[in-house]
Write a structure and sequence with these properties.
Length: 270
């Protein structure tokens, strides 16, 4: 007896839930729900595009700019290092030359202290050899001085060019960074708009839409081109029969290929 009562109650509960469900289905204007989805899709498309810019496109450009600038900086630093090495080379050659000149003076001073002609001749030969070395070193010093002169001129140009590059780089970088700030503000206002639009949409339909948005690259509803009879998102052919089904707006019609919710833009005067 108790069991029968329970089953009766369960039956009543089911009937009431089912009636509620049917009431929901029939009281809901599916065409209007799809119109709201299309509006929401516009916001989501903008959200998707801007998020992509913020998360991928701009960081990639910033990265590329950074790499390009680092390459230029490295080349500039290398040229500074070359100029520094030339100065060291000059100092080294000048020091060698001074040492040779000291040796020549010393040997010339010794000439008068020598007793024999043989020693005298030997000293003269030594002085001649030292002078030949000194003359070679002088040539080398002059060569390095020439190199330094050329490098100095080039270095000045490079320094100016690099300062210009650095300025341009900073401007591009700060331009992109402020663009991220602008996008963030826009994303915030779009998110707010999305919340407002979503509140007005049937929960089950919205859940389906959100699932598609996440799995279909930010595009959940797709317009059908009635002239060419294809899906606006994947371009798959949509049969005339299917177009009629969509036009009835009695249930959600999905593209058989990309599984997006289909609609006819003309039905919404879009
Ligand atoms: Zn499709």
């Amino acid at each position: 007896m108790v069991g029968a009562l329970r089953s009766h109650r369960r039956g009543l509960w089911f009937k009431s839930r089912y009636a509620h469900f049917l009431k929901n289905i029939f009281s809901m204007d599916l065409k209007d729900e799809i119109r709201k989805l299309v509006e929401l899709q516009k916001v989501d498309t903008e959200l998707y595009t801007l998020s992509f810019k913020k998360e991928a496109e701009i960081p990639q450009r910033l990265d590329a700019l950074k790499k390009e600038f680092e390459g230029k900086k490295k080349a500039f630093e290398l040229s500074l290092e070359n100029a520094k090495q030339l100065q060291l080379k000059k100092k080294e050659k000048e020091l060698n030359l001074a040492t040779k000149e000291d040796a020549i003076k010393k040997s010339q001073g010794q000439l008068f202290q020598l007793k024999t002609n043989k020693e005298y001749q030997a000293k003269l030969t030594e002085i001649a050899s030292l002078k030949a070395d000194a003359s070679l070193l002088e040539e080398e010093v002059l060569k390095v001085l020439d190199e330094i002169e050329n490098t100095d001129k080039k270095s000045k140009e490079e320094k100016n060019a690099f300062a210009e590059e650095e300025k341009k780089h900073k401007e591009s970088e700060s331009g992109l960074t402020s663009r991220i700030g602008e996008i963030e503000a826009k994303l915030k206002s779009l998110e707010e708009k999305k919340v407002i639009l979503s509140k007005d949409i049937d929960k089950n339909i919205l859940a389906k839409y959100e699932k598609l948005i996440k799995t279909r690259s930010g595009l959940a509803v797709s317009p059908v081109n009635v002239d060419t009879e294809n899906c606006g998102a994947c371009h798959m052919r949509i049969t005339a029969q299917k177009i009629n089904e969509i036009k009835m707006y009695s249930e959600l019609v999905l593209c058989e290929n990309c599984v997006r919710i289909l609609y006819i833009p003309e039905d919404f005067s879009l």
